[in-house]
Design goal:
- The chain has helices at about 5-25, 25-30, 45-50, 90, 120, 170, 185-190, and strands spanning about 50-65, 75-85, 100-110, 135-150, 150, 155, 160-165, 205-215, 215-225, 250-260, 260-265, 270-280, 290-305, 310-320, 325-335, 345-355, 370-385, 385-395, 405-415.
- By secondary structure, the chain is mainly beta.
- The strands form 2 sheets. It has a 16-stranded antiparallel β-barrel.
């Protein structure tokens, strides 16, 4: 299928659903609304009033590989996802259930070989140019329950409990700015995915507890089942028993503590966190437990108007060299919202990621050294529910070896929220 065909599927679906939206809402209100499909003749508001909310999105990324180990070429990755949340207090009309919700999500990613730009670039999988190629095909992403105490020892939402078939990547290393990029290392794996299954495609049984002693500080821990190859497209996110041999299942523990201050007279928001993890599997191929720790520092450093301004994000990860693919990883960058006059929602993005390889990455006696990825782009908000984001990527030593051809990519990301 050509790129034009790929683009047409979600667009046709959204346009078909939006016929009602345009009839019931003024064009300007629809254009600036949250979803392309509008209010569904008012049904969406009725559902929301009764505690049921649905959302969805389509994302597509075109990669024009200018130069790489395998020459030049094109690729187009895409993702379609739908989620739902049920507010039990509203649904049951029961005040005692305030803060309790049920949730679930499903996803589809293009499994075609022409969807993966890494077939040309040849990068180590952490540094895949695309964030949308892992766990391809249809996939059950999550279902579970969350309880956020309306007040806990005087702190609003001071205690949050989550459990079920959930994604650790959505619970820890919360770095929204990094997820605006196209590459896998920053936007999906967040560095940790180079050593352990920590991407958007890893779902497992588990739970988290988050407590806030004060409004600006938190402690959060999580415990999950671990098992080999959890992101394998063949399991479709349905591997509820873990590995077919239960003795190869293990436990994944991760904990994080941080502060979320608002600095200065302008109350510039930030997040500073420290975390550690132990990921265990009982199989020889994996090599036993893997551990590591990380620091995160995100801060708005200048505010222009409202939420506009310049933000910085950074992440540093350390892991034992002897049994990890990456002994050190860092990512960081800047996001400037409102960089164009009269365009307050557009963002200028610049990011960099670097990984130093550990002993576990050695193959045939050869030891890779490091990979560096740079990405810059501009996210233009076309409406309240759509964006276009041209970008450039450059990957130095994609597979970690100095004799590997560097990769240069020009691309464009597209997004629709339903």
């Amino acid at each position: 299928m050509g790129i034009r065909t790929y683009l047409s599927l979600p667009l046709l679906l959204a346009l078909a659903l939006n016929v009602t939206a345009e009839e019931e809402l003024p064009a300007a209100a629809w254009w600036e609304g949250d979803g392309m499909t509008g209010k569904w003749f008012g049904a969406r508001d009725v559902l929301s009033d009764n505690g049921f909310a649905v959302d969805g999105h389509w994302r597509g990324i075109y990669f024009g590989v200018l130069d790489s180990a395998n020459g030049s070429g094109n690729a187009f990755s895409e993702e379609l996802a739908f989620g739902a949340q049920l507010d039990l207090a509203k649904t049951l009309r029961w005040e005692a259930a305030e803060g309790a919700t049920l949730f679930g999500e499903v996803r589809w990613r293009d499994p075609g070989t022409d969807a993966n730009p890494n077939s040309l670039v040849g990068a180590e999988k952490l540094f895949n140019p695309s964030r949308y190629v892992g766990g391809s095909g249809w996939r059950l992403m999550s279902f579970g329950a969350r309880y956020a105490a309306p007040e806990f020892f005087g702190v609003k939402r001071g205690l949050v409990l989550t459990g079920g078939w959930i994604q650790p990547q959505k619970e820890f290393v919360d770095q929204p700015l990094a997820r605006l990029f196209a590459n896998n290392a920053m936007a999906s794996a967040e560095g940790l995915g180079g050593n352990i299954p920590f991407t958007s495609s890893f779902t497992s049984w588990g739970g988290t507890i988050e407590a806030k002693p004060v409004e600006w500080s938190y402690v959060k821990t999580g415990l999950f089942m671990s098992f080999p190859n959890p992101s394998d497209p063949a399991n479709n996110g349905l591997q509820f028993g873990g590995h077919g041999d239960p003795s190869q299942n293990g436990l994944f523990f991760i904990g994080e503590t941080g502060i979320t201050p608002k600095i200065g007279a302008d109350k510039l928001p930030g997040r500073y966190a420290f975390g550690a993890y132990v990921y265990g599997e009982n199989n020889a191929e994996y090599g036993g437990n893997k551990s590591g720790y990380y620091w995160q520092a995100d801060q708005m450093i200048w505010r222009e108007d409202g939420e506009q301004g310049l933000r910085l994000f950074s992440l540093f990860i350390f892991a034992p060299r002897y049994n990890n693919d990456f002994s050190f990883y860092t990512q960081g960058g800047l996001a400037y919202e409102g960089f164009l006059p009269g365009r307050p929602r557009d963002e200028l993005l610049v990011g960099l990621a670097l990984g130093n390889y550990g002993a576990a990455a050695a193959a045939d006696g050869a030891q890779p050294t490091q990979t560096v990825l740079m990405e810059a782009g501009c996210r233009f908000k076309l409406s309240g529910w759509s964006f276009i984001q041209p970008f450039v990527q450059y990957i130095s030593q994609p597979d970690g070896f100095s004799n590997a051809a560097n990769a240069a990519i020009l691309g464009v990301s597209l997004g629709l929220d339903f």
